[in-house]
Amino acid sequence: MSEHLLEVKDLAVSFSSYAGKIRAVRGVSFHLDAGETLAIVGESGCGKTVTVKALMKLYGNSAAFIEEGSVIDFKGQDVVHMNSRELSKLRGEGIGMIFQDPMTSLNPTLTVGYQIAEGIRFHDKSISRQAAEQKAIELLKLVGIPSPEERVRQYPHQLSGGMRQRVMIAIAIACDADIIICDEPTTALDVTIQAQVLELLNDLKEKTNKAFILVTHDLGIVFDFADRIQVMYAGVILERGTKYEMFDDPHHPYTWALLNSVPSKQSKNKGALYSIQGTPPDLMMPIQGCPFADRCDYCMPICKERMPQELQLSETHTVSCWLEHSMAPKIKAPSMRGEE
Predict the structure, then answer these.
(1) Whether the Cβ atoms of residue 168 and residue 99 lie closer than 8 Å to each other
(2) What is the sign, positive or negative, of the torsion defined by CA atoms of 175, 180, 186, 188?
């Protein structure tokens, strides 16, 4: 058995395309323990969603495939080598997933109650249809949907965006999964509904011992929800640590840039938001050095020649950056947006 609830080692995921192989995730390692929340942050296209879908081999008919690495669950089983029957059991009972767009994830031709009960009956063959529907009503009530007895018979288009996301949460927790993956759960929602959904997730976290993985590009929603954060870019982890380490003492220029991209009430220049210049590297091409080198304000020649090794800053804090080398110039982290 694994000492962690989940342990990912040297995971590499690629896509086959007409022009060649796209290396979307390149040697990612991390772990997850019961009751904690890990946030994976980074820009769109950095490999966050590809990484978490690999935890369930949830690629459908896409051209994605796991090239190497392992995903060990708390039973000591490697997800990479699971057959379709084992994966069906894992999805729902072991790991539940909240997708970022409930309108495309929910079936528009089926009632929300049927879609919740369907997963319950799939994983528990002994439960009756009536009992599964009653559990669906209880789950809708748990996630804060009013009049659940009526809503259970409605279709996705009859619900608001916030309610549809709550239905997705109900489906994810319906089979009492040990791990809940939240893939950009608030992206399509307005600010008020975002806050309500995050409050609901926090409430579920406090009431259960479930582990959460939060995938997001928005560091603004991470602090109140995550215990640990890992910053991902071009398929690799550049920095990781507790939320306090990452917000109070970040070390990688990409982490600095992400933090500065978060709007602040204290910002003096209210007319402009900080943006990271340039574009991410082409993942079809070999990346020799640090993938962030071409966009980094502190890039040195060696940054384009060799990928820096991961340096242990503390028991929980690591970074991969040549600025940490003893021969590198001493660069002080820039003031975060809104600071004096």
Answers:
(1) yes
(2) negative
Angle formed at CA 177 by CA 171 and CA 181, multiple of 5 degrees: 70
What 3-state class would DSSP assign to 114? helix
**How is residue 258 written in tokens?**
């992400």
> Which has the closest alpha carbon to 38: 228, 180, 211?
228
Task: Give the CA radius of gyration of the chain.
Answer: 21
What does pTM read for this prediction? 0.92
Q: Which residues have CB under 8 Å from 192's CB, separation 6+?
A: none
- C-alpha 8/C-alpha 96 separation (Å) is 17
Specify whether the CB–CB gap between 211 and 226 falls below 8 A: no
Q: What pLDDT sits at residue 262? A: 79
Categorize the per-residue pLDDT at 221 as very low, low, confident or very high, splitting at 50, 70 and 90: confident
Distance (Å, rounded) from C-alpha 315 to C-alpha 134? 47
H/E run at residue 17 = strand 6-17
Is the CB of residue 8 less than 8 Å from the CB of residue 55? yes
Q: What size, in residues, is the chain?
A: 340
